[in-house]
Amino acid sequence: MSALPPHPKLLDLGAGSGRIGWPFVRAHDDYVGVDLSFGMLRAFRQRCAGAALVQADGCALPFADRSFDGVLLVQVFGGLKRWRALIEESLRVLRPQGALLLGRTRRPDGGIDARMKRQLDLILHGSAPPAEAGNSRAEAELQLEERAATVSVIDAATWDATCTPRDFIERHDGGARFSKLPAELRGRALRQLADWAVRQFGSLDARFPETHRFTLRIFTFER
Ligand SMILES: C[S@@+](CC[C@H](N)C(=O)[O-])C[C@H]1O[C@@H](n2cnc3c(N)ncnc32)[C@H](O)[C@@H]1O
What's the rounded mean pLDDT across residues 61-69? Predict the structure, then answer.
């Protein structure tokens, strides 16, 4: 198991608008946020002045080998074709004693999002696609598990949320995989989903209380 130093040097790869990164910046941690998108980094900067931010492709990082104690990857792999290259680069810049931290928000399996997702799969594919097929997040996670010397999982945070079918529809329209489908197909599928949700739940604004978790999978490697 790795023993991270007291003040680890952390790379947040695919940092986005700083949803995860801003507390590290505020705490004056040794934190670098990287993102491909200038717009995301600008939003990060607006949220939190003083952050060390670099616009770069995570598949070709402008950092030396073994330069970080931790590499944080939070909701980066979804819909990412080049996930293998992103893993290789993450491991290249990670120090031998370092840890790769994979974070994601988990919603309950029987919750409103899971039900909406299953129905959307039915509309798009006629059935739910196999969980791992073409799912870059699941494939990346599997590869990391196979290569790691140790894997540990922690619920870093849990919180209560109120969800509606409308939230799912609005959020999904910008989702990484879904947005690659033709606009006409997306529009039709979401309209069908909305009709189904109204029949099923009475309204798009029906409110469902749920507990959400932010889970971290921590990988170390023998190198
Ligand atoms: C869903 S967002 C997650 C952002 C942040 N980690 C969070 O959890 O709030 C995914 C981010 O990964 C970035 N991204 C996607 N491909 C990337 C790549 N090849 N290199 C760097 N960043 C990338 C996107 O621009 C986006 O900001």
Answer: 98
Residue 54 to residue 34: CA distance in whole angstroms: 5
Residue 71: CATH number of its domain? 3.40.50.150
In a domain, 1, yes or no: no
In the reported structure, the alpha carbon of residue 14 is separated from the centroid of ligand 1 by a whole-number distance in angstroms of: 3
pTM: 0.85
Whether 177 is covered by a domain: the verdict is yes
Structurally, the chain folds into a number of domains equal to 1
pLDDT in tens, 91-137: 999 999 999 999 999 999 899 999 999 999 899 988 665 555 568 88
**Separation of CA 29 and ligand 1 centre (Å):** 21
Tell me the helix, strand and coil percentages in the chain, rounded to 5: 35, 25, 35
Has residue 176 got a pLDDT over 80? no
Give CA angle at 60 (56, 63), nearest 5°.
80
Residue 23 lies in a domain: yes
**Domain interval for residue 178:** 9-220
Is residue 194 situated within a structural domain? Answer: yes
Please indicate whether residue 73, judged by its CB atom, sits closer than 6 Å to ligand 1.
no
